[in-house]
């Protein structure tokens, strides 16, 4: 064997010598570039040849050949091993031959393996190309179906088109011939021509409406006369008021002697008397409800504000009304004309900011409700009346005494939003009075919500319990807007509103207790729900903290929820952090004010050594979000009061699953500390199923 090595060495040196002798002359600037280009061409040819071989090969025959060579390689290895241990004669030439033969077998196995992998890649690339073509055709088909549906809808709209005259509710044909005058009915023509009949009926309708217009003008004239009579009687009644005051003052010793409290009640009633009409209606109905058998000491009504400012405001409004009446009746008077021009000049001279502040001016008096529940917890609601906008606004505060030093975002940040969406779609962001939009446009006010910090929120339910109904809020009859009694409107709505407020306070109290438990990393799970979870979770619950809307929207993986309006700035936002080894899962949670009617929404991101995975790009994370946001609320419907804790516990379980099964799914390399602790029945389709035992 040494001789053969020497012979091989001599032959190698002779080859090198021959190559040196045959080396062509190369210019200095060319260096080895032709040699490199030659290697590149050889590599490309070899690669192309391998791809062509892989494309044309039969996988079944290749696998069969692979097993055949493998068997021969095994026989070769057995024979070499036998010669090594002396079971057979140790022939050097035979040993060398067996070794070379084994290397050839090994090279063939590697070649077949490489060709099979290349073929697998080719098949996958062709499959991806075919899938893209199918998807393109599918999208094209969907577009065509959409266009067809749109065209069908347009055809249906054209077929269902109704002319303007068809919307008029005309009297019947028999009634028309009975009531219409002969010169309008024209029976000899209209009975044989439907078109002329339609025109005649419309002409008769026009005559009837003209008659109703004249009748309305006559009634308006009578109304003016009656209003003048009422004002004359009001003047006489106002003259009696000072006399009554003198009588009360003169009889004060008599009242004290008999223990009567007429004067004290009068002073107390001064606040009520100077309340604006909507707040007065609210006060009367609130007192009536408080004194009813259903109310109790947990509901308190108060009147607050500056009584002197309210009196001055009332006097000023009376002067303005008197001046407007005088201007209508005595427009030729020079003094009144001068006063009107001064008033206009003073209004024009005001700055834009002053006009805006004047627009949102509140009445000096306000009504306060105190709704108590659950011991020391209570809700204070203050009702204000905006004089110029003629609407009611609301401010609220939650009072909650705690024995420890912990606080919750529910108290500090969302106390003013506790009444938001008390009824469906009632966010209190815009004025319910449609006439206010013209005032806002006049003074360049873009949105009512900009001034809500000073004025409060104009909830629709607040307008109703104060007897205010606007066209959007009240009933619309066929003959126009149906005017209803303000007291009746308030009475119908005040009891239902208070019940809804108490229901909201109970749910908010339970939510607050759940937030306090989560801030101390205490996940509360009902005993009956423990069967839904494994006995042990390797993922730990690290922290729970409140965040604001800007922090929430700063994360890119929450953009889809914001764009789809799944969350909004009106919600409460929190951040939960879970951890297992080097993996950290962050869940951004948005909670609606009407929890638990609407389940919280979790937005999840998994961080493993700086590698971020979230629902925007990772199917497994989207499956977890679907499990937490969709299936968990349905699964834990009977424990809705602690739904957030149950969702967090399920999120910990899902975090364990995705970390322990990543290597099985082929999505990531299994890390050493993520040991399989849970039995999964399937790991390739949908969410992983867990055997809790």
UniProtKB/TrEMBL annotation:
The lineage of its organism: Eukaryota, Metazoa, Ecdysozoa, Arthropoda, Hexapoda. Pfam families: FmiP_Thoc5 (PF09766). Its main location: nucleus. InterPro entries: THO_Thoc5. Keywords: Nucleus. It comes from the Eukaryota. Residues 1-33 are annotated as: Disordered. PANTHER family: FMS INTERACTING PROTEIN, THO COMPLEX SUBUNIT 5 HOMOLOG. Belongs to the THOC5 family. It comes from Orchesella dallaii. Residues 16-33 have a biased composition (Basic and acidic residues). It is found in: Nucleus. This is THO complex subunit 5. Residues 1-14 have a biased composition (Low complexity).
